[in-house]
Amino acid sequence: MGIPTFGEMLIADDIITEEQLERALALQQSGRDQKNLIGVILIRLGFITMDTLIKYLEIQTGMVIEEHPKKRVPPLGELLTGNGEISEEQLQEALKTQKTRGNTPLGIILVQLNYIDADLLMRYLIKQTALAIEEG
Fold first, then answer.
1. Which residue in 5, 25, 62, 122 is a FRET match for 133, CA 20 to 30 A apart?
2. Distance (Å, rounded) from C-alpha 78 to C-alpha 88?
3. d(Cα 93, Cα 109) in Å, to the nearest integer?
4. For residue range 57-110, what is the model confidence (pLDDT) as tens digits?
């Protein structure tokens, strides 16, 4: 079956309609918004929030990592601490908070605690996905 696209996941969960996705894709393909992720365009159009973008990026990243089980893809917290974006103490605090919030993705908690911003989180989620699918 494969991994659903970002838009397919949002439609399946009744977050956006097919028409809204088509409008965002048309903008992306027109060249006016070609450099942006579809999620960023959907935010700009008012169809989703930043929290929704982050949540579904984390879900999709997890799917990609699961699809490539032989790859060693560092967890988000390890990537962020290893690159000096957050401290080990901040990571531990976020993980503790995550346990009290059920299934809230770590990235959202890190943003909510103001340890990182949403742009940095998106860059690292994309990096995780790239690490999972890269050759070699």
1. 25
2. 9
3. 10
4. 888 888 888 888 888 889 999 999 999 999 999 999 999 999 998 878 899 899
Q: What would the DSSP string read from start to end of 69-106? A: TTS----HHHHHHHTTSS-HHHHHHHHHHHHHTTT--H
Environment class of 70 (CB within 10 Å of its CB; exposed 0-12, middle 13-18, buried 19+): exposed
> Whole-angstrom Cα distance, residue 91 to residue 15?
30
Q: Which two tokens stand for residue 101?
A: 């919030």
Q: Sign of dihedral through CA atoms 61, 62, 63, 64?
A: positive
> What distances in angstroms separate CA 128 from CA 9, 30, 71, 85, one per listed residue?
19, 28, 11, 15
